[in-house]
Amino acid sequence: MQRLESAPQDFDRVLSSMCTEPHPAARQAAERFLATNPGDPETYQTVADLERDAVELLGTVTGLPEPAGYVTSGGTEANIQAVRIARNRADTDDPNVVVPTHAHFSFWKAADLLGVELRTAPARDHRADTDAMAELIDADTVLVVGVAGSTEYGYVDPIPGLAELAHDADALFHVDAAWGGFYLPFSDHRWHFGHADVDTMTIDPHKVGQAAVPAGGLLARSPELLDELAIDTPYLESTKQVTLTGTRSGAGVASAVAAMEALWPEGYREQYRRSMDNARWLADELAERGYDVVEPELPLVAADVSQPLVEKLRDRGWRVARTGADELRVVCMPHVTRSMLRSFVADLDWY
Amino acid sequence: MQRLESAPQDFDRVLSSMCTEPHPAARQAAERFLATNPGDPETYQTVADLERDAVELLGTVTGLPEPAGYVTSGGTEANIQAVRIARNRADTDDPNVVVPTHAHFSFWKAADLLGVELRTAPARDHRADTDAMAELIDADTVLVVGVAGSTEYGYVDPIPGLAELAHDADALFHVDAAWGGFYLPFSDHRWHFGHADVDTMTIDPHKVGQAAVPAGGLLARSPELLDELAIDTPYLESTKQVTLTGTRSGAGVASAVAAMEALWPEGYREQYRRSMDNARWLADELAERGYDVVEPELPLVAADVSQPLVEKLRDRGWRVARTGADELRVVCMPHVTRSMLRSFVADLDWY
């Protein structure tokens, strides 16, 4: 009981998370719709309608006028389902999926689950290298993946070039914009359905979209792609289910709609500007101190701060993560303010 | 916006759902912990501790003194993961899973995902038939499944007998008590880790446990079984992840703990009595009217009310479901009161 009464979470030293505090409208909607289940749409009709609204709004964000899709438990489910669509649609006994080396670890989870071979191409300057990707693609390739806002560096792969590669090989093309999707519309990147021949996409309202967890997003260019996922549901009033999970969170769905209605587009644009400025400011401060900094492309900063120093910052309560190359990694989420970063840099200077 | 402001859900005519209104303590905990992510335990430490409490409490409910496990997105994830553990642990290229025909449709989802063959044995009197199950088991059987509280009839399979079958074949044994798990402790059934050599179990706090969605449960007799699910997590502060999803709902975890702390065991016992009495009352009322009723074993009533009549009841706002055999199916969840059922029967009489 005691633990339930303790403070659930302070965000004032969290620099490691790709989640954030939900927008007040998103929190309110999550609380209102807590006892609903979009997994049973005939029983819970209001939230089922809201899910259609959520998918429409996600289509608006990603340049897809008639989107198919649903609100997932998160980016991992959406990535797994994209691999599953491609595997089920293809006609091969030995399917493989080609990803850049910086793809999210959920693709390894998907490979284990789905029994597909994962082929990883080395990156160049933290972005997918089209030539290296092309070398791995063959007749058994069912899916090519591009990342729009990588987990480790926030970098954007050359999406139009990768889409071409995929379709030349008759494979599907998936974009993982789980984290980046609500920052990218305000950047110059070419990343979405309107920019390239993208088949499926992951974009998570519960990250930069400022919805409450769990609200991930899977989008597909056409409903036929989702049909690859359909399982019969004998006892529900509805008869087919394409989602990975069964019972699902109405709180997540409602809060996704509430966040997008409150923030799209001007609120998100303003957030992008503020977070990008913060990232550039932190990158400059770290560079001035002699650290090797990966120039931020989206609001995420990586720098070669030594592990012993990172441990000391953790002891002072900072939640910071690291890249695979053991760099310090700071994710500039909406809750990360300039004053938090000033205080972080002051602690860094103190050691 | 309008839709967000409409009433999220009335439960006063919902007889079809296996979810219910969360207990007030569960709702409060869900709201407090809305912005936490147990999928990132080093960043969100309080909720990670709460998840350990949840697993301990689930162990208490299911006769497992040192439980391994975690809070899943729901029963589907838990069932998928049980199949995945068995598949990954076994040494066969052609794995199969033996389930009774009334197993939940999530096992079909698991079979598609995981590339295992699903073998379904006919039931006898709505329960798994041990002989029929035995006939399907062979050297490639990696998992045998028993259901403790079936989705369609609420019946309980002969768990100890099925456990023996499984272990004689060196397969794992999984019990799906997703719905029944919080009613069964107060019945005479033999269904849990203390009654038989069960390896893994699904038991969902967000159903009869009265937690908020999403709070399912996967339990395992030993942590080594969960290791079969481990995937490296390069960028998190923790380094391994066994869950199917990545980011997860802290609201679900906290509300599971709150519900179990508030209700175990006396509150759940009282709920079992009330719901079982309601089910028996409804079964009697329907039988008196000449319907063929499946005698309820747990608080779930099925009866051969004709489909046109069921459609009329739906038109009057009743949310009712059907079995695979097209029977009317009424799930006596905690929100289903005697007066709701009286009003339902009155509507039935009206037609």
Provide tags for this entry.
4-stranded antiparallel beta sheet, 12 helices, globular, alpha/beta, 351 residues, Aspartate Aminotransferase, domain 2, Aspartate Aminotransferase, domain 1, 7-stranded mixed beta sheet, 2 domains, homodimer
Short précis:
Chains A, B: Its cofactor is pyridoxal 5'-phosphate. Chains A, B: GO terms for molecular function: aspartate 1-decarboxylase activity; pyridoxal phosphate binding. The structure is a homodimer of 351-residue chains. The first copy, chain A, has helices spanning 2-5, 24-32, 45-61, 75-89, 106-114, 130-136, 159-168, 223-227, 250-263, 266-288, 307-315, 338-350; strands spanning 68-72, 96-100, 117-121, 123-124, 127-128, 141-147, 172-176, 200-202, 216-220, 231-232, 240-241, 293-294, 300-303, 321-322, 328-331.
CATH superfamily of the largest domain in chain A: Type I PLP-dependent aspartate aminotransferase-like (Major domain)
- CATH fold naming of the largest domain in chain A: Aspartate Aminotransferase, domain 2
Radius of gyration of chain A: 20 Å
Given the helix and strand composition of chain A, which structural class is it? Answer: alpha/beta
User: How far apart are the first and last residues' alpha carbons of chain A, in Å?
Assistant: 38 Å
Identify the biggest protein-protein contact and residues per side. A-B, 89 and 89 residues
For the secondary structure, the number of strands of chain A is: 15
- Overall mean pLDDT of chain A: 96
Supply the number of structural domains of chain A.
Answer: 2
- DSSP helix count of chain A? 12
CATH architecture of the largest domain in chain A: 3-Layer(aba) Sandwich
Can you tell me the overall shape of chain A? globular
Order of helices and strands of chain A: HHHEHEHEEEHEHEEEHEEHHEEHEEH
Strand order of the largest sheet of chain A: 1-9-8-7-6-2-3
Q: Please state the oligomeric state of the protein chains shown.
A: homodimer
CATH class of the largest domain in chain A: Alpha Beta
Cofactor (chains A, B): pyridoxal 5'-phosphate
Enzyme class (chains A, B): lyase
Protein name (chains A, B): Probable L-aspartate decarboxylase
EC number (chains A, B): 4.1.1.11
